[in-house]
DNA sequence: AAGTTTGGCAACCGCATCTAT
DNA sequence: TATAGATGCGGTTGCCAAACT
């Protein structure tokens, strides 16, 4: 037996919202709130209009018609319209460079968790960010990658010329040497999965963590971002404080979370902005390229950034999204997260936001990582139970 | 100028999770 | 504890306007 539909599909309007519908929904929510029940909202709006008409000095035919109909929309549709368009302080378009950086950074860190990414950008909706990523940001990166490839090809042909002339074969680039910042990855032992251990591989757990860290979820009326738009990591980091995730038992992870939560933690430090190869602390275009293209581990979900995958852009963004593989394989992503990185002193350590070291305003160094404190170690294995 | 293709985005769909009973 | 219904989320679709031929 299937689930009952949330509304009478045959009797609800679909498609674009008219200004009248918007006005109805907005005025009702402004006055009464959502009432905590989106499904019942369309009917409630009809009732409210009836009451309104009861007190109106004159009633037009159209007004009565509206009243009888209520709002012929599915509750889910009302919710979506409100959240993505009618809600106050929604920003549309005009993404800043900083916002681009944050989106790219978080996408690479946590994948297509649009709601979490949106929570870091006040005024932005997950839908907006998702669309922006699919239609603009991804292509922006792709364009840069093509330029890189062309440049590389030019470089290669020059090298081939040199080889023909009998130069040393050591000039042939070794794939492993292509990036000094990314030595051969260590093969990490699998973490045994146990259902008994606390897991953070669901939205609720992440949400709880965000609440702990004082992000937007801490108070629905408070849109404070968890991360500041201007990440301000100090580099080089204190490498001694960086612990490979897999060496810590889960309990330690939890303790680390508590430690961070209890620390005199300033959220100004960009809780989940990854530290990048080469020690860059924010996403300039160059550092983003480094992370994506010089990473020996291909980023799942970002295959389009690598030249030899066919990006099937048939029609519209959605098709290309599918062709490029929309979902993140956390097992693969972890190889990015835990890939070793050398800092400017050529000290190699495990790179990843889970165990980034951050100094707070008192110059105290501690383990940090917002989503990652609870997320990656578990998320990596969520699909391999 | 007309037809076709592409890009951008609002909205829908289905599933997972949460919550109330 | 089980279940039904509500909510939230990510993926996908389809419309429309702009760009291109």
From TrEMBL:
PROSITE patterns: HTH_MYB, MYB_LIKE. One of its GO terms (cellular component) is nucleus. Residues 9-86, 87-137 form the Myb-like domain. Pfam families: Myb_DNA-binding. Its main location: nucleus. Keywords: DNA-binding, Nucleus, Repeat, Transcription, Transcription regulation. Residues 9-35, 87-141 form the HTH myb-type domain. SMART domains: SANT. The lineage of its organism: Eukaryota, Viridiplantae, Streptophyta, Embryophyta, Tracheophyta. It is found in: Nucleus. This is Uncharacterized protein. It comes from the Eukaryota. It comes from Escallonia herrerae. One of its GO terms (molecular function) is DNA binding. Residues 142-174 are annotated as: Disordered.
